[in-house]
Amino acid sequence: MTPLLPALQSPTGPAASREAVRFGDLSLTYGELAAASTALAARMADAGRVAVWAAPTPETVIAVVAALRAGVPAVPLNPRTGERELAHILADSEPTAVLAGPDDALPPALEKLRRVTVDARAPEHTEGDAPAEEAPESPALIVYTSGTTGPPKGAVLPRRAIAASLDALEDAWGWTGDDVLVHALPLFHVHGLILGVLGPLRRGGSLRHLGKFSTEGVARELGSGGTMLFGVPTMYHRLAEVLDAPAGGAERDALAGALAGARLLVSGSAALPVHDHERIAAATGRRVIERYGMTETLMNTGIRADGVPRPGTVGPPLAGVELRLVEEDGTVLEGTEAIGEIQVRGPNLFTGYLNRPDATAAAHTADGWFRTGDVGTVDGDGYVRIVGRKATDLIKSGGYKIGAGEIENVLLGHPGVREAAVTGEEDPDLGERVVAWVVASDPDSPPLAEELADHVAAQLAPHKRPRTVHFLDALPRNDLGKIMKRSLHVR
Ligand code: MCA
Ligand code: AMP
């Protein structure tokens, strides 16, 4: 069986001394990562399922690679996950151990699990053979993703999907072992972990992770050998702001030069506004290209490196991916005038939601197509354009998917809140911003907006906190008592 990460199988000679990952001053070669992950894999052979404290560190890379090599499904955890969300993920995925770095302070909910410490500065070594490759259909990662209501669901991603999606990107982008990828994405989602870490490792190339996003970090790393940049639109927006600054000076020039020198600038996780596309192109002469994916499907479409970049589109389907547009009643639509739900089929798809056969069935058609919930069109040359999404209760903020329902439930758990509704509002930086509409339990002394934001951050995650809170006397409801979210706007 072909290994998922061939370059880590038994690297020798120059292949072993090539840099695999670098986080600040800490880097690991292929030889070091192979040795450290083989040793760790041996320690978790019978672990069932493991959680990985997915901080942006080399320890996370060692942990995930080791789990993949051991054939043990890994659940990457957002280190900022709040109490309620973490309790749900642990109860749902039932890991037997948590892999974390030596300095990571773990919350009480994780103290019950066996802790396996991974130390990139003093990695374990083993001369043992690499473990045998697992079957392609076996689960590799379980990635939690929000829905419109209820807690996040665990998308079970098999090795087959990861390999297929990364190889389709190799084909589209001419991605090779010579590429040096730069990014600052979180390592608990598909974008940062699968594309951003497993992508370079599958090709035998390198990753330089910034730890935390900064425009200076992007300029520094792309200006010193980086060939590709992956980011969410918020990051490209912040780059565009620097490029566009009237008195940008040396910082602006360094960034423009670094971006101009990169082989590929790729944006995804949400739509990059055409205005930001244009500002970056004007300052650098380079076009950002977009690709479109989803936790459940990995990558579906993408502009090719040798293709025609067209802002506002996400390119044609990737190799192996079938894509169609479907009407509400199930009619398959044809032609460039058609607007419908995007449905996809292919080797890039997940196997289902963990413990949720109902949700898995609801997400697929009888003939095996996955319903993305995104609404789009297809141009004459096959380029897909995303024009909206079916569910109004899903918010994309900073590239994170957030369900209005999960935030409403948490707000209702606050003693100062009698009623709550959550909406997404356009935001130039985040794409959408989480907005809460609250009826206070005591209208004469409503809770502070900041207190409600902290409450959501502590229970769910900081990126789910409302950025704006409006207090109302009552929520607008229809005759059936249903909240009319469309009527919620500032008068
Ligand atoms: C602020 N903070 C708080 C609070 N307020 N912490 C606790 N309680 C509070 N009330 C902290 C934050 O944790 C953070 O800490 C800092 O303050 C700033 O937070 P925030 O303002 O939220 O961050 P930001 O600067 O707005 O973040 C922008 C970002 C981020 C960097 C672009 O949104 C991001 O990383 N997005 C990536 C999302 C992503 O990867 N999506 C992929 C999923 P500190 O300063 O210490 O950090 S989609 C996917 O995978 C599919 C397949 C696809 O297509 O890609
Ligand atoms: P997630 O479930 O967090 O993996 O987010 C997947 C969703 O992000 C998709 O269903 C799309 O709505 C959105 N998305 C990802 N990439 C793009 C893109 N390039 N343009 C527009 N939307 C995107």
- CATH architecture tag of the domain at 396-487: 2-Layer Sandwich
Percent of sequence in beta strands: 25-35%
- Termini Cα gap: 62 Å
Number of strands: 25
Q: What compounds sit in this structure?
A: methylmalonyl-coenzyme A, adenosine monophosphate
Q: Determine the mean pLDDT.
A: 96
Broad CATH class of the domain at 396-487: Alpha Beta
Instruction: Estimate the global geometry from the Cα principal axes.
Output: globular
Strand order of the largest sheet: 2-1-10-9-11-12-13-14
User: Using only CA atoms, what is the Rg?
Assistant: 23 Å
> Helix segment count?
14
- Fourth-tier CATH superfamily name of the domain at 396-487: ANL, C-terminal domain
Please give the share of residues in helix.
25-40%
Structural class: alpha/beta
Q: Biggest β-sheet, characterized? A: 8 strands, mixed
- State the low-pLDDT regions, or none: none
The CATH topology label of the domain at 396-487 is GMP Synthetase, Chain A, domain 3
Please characterize this protein's 3D structure.
Helix content is 30%, strand content 26%. It has an 8-stranded mixed β-sheet, sandwiched between helices. It is α/β, with parallel strands linked by helices and 491 residues long. The protein has a domain at 396-487: 2-Layer Sandwich (GMP Synthetase, Chain A, domain 3). The radius of gyration is 23 Å and the shape is globular.
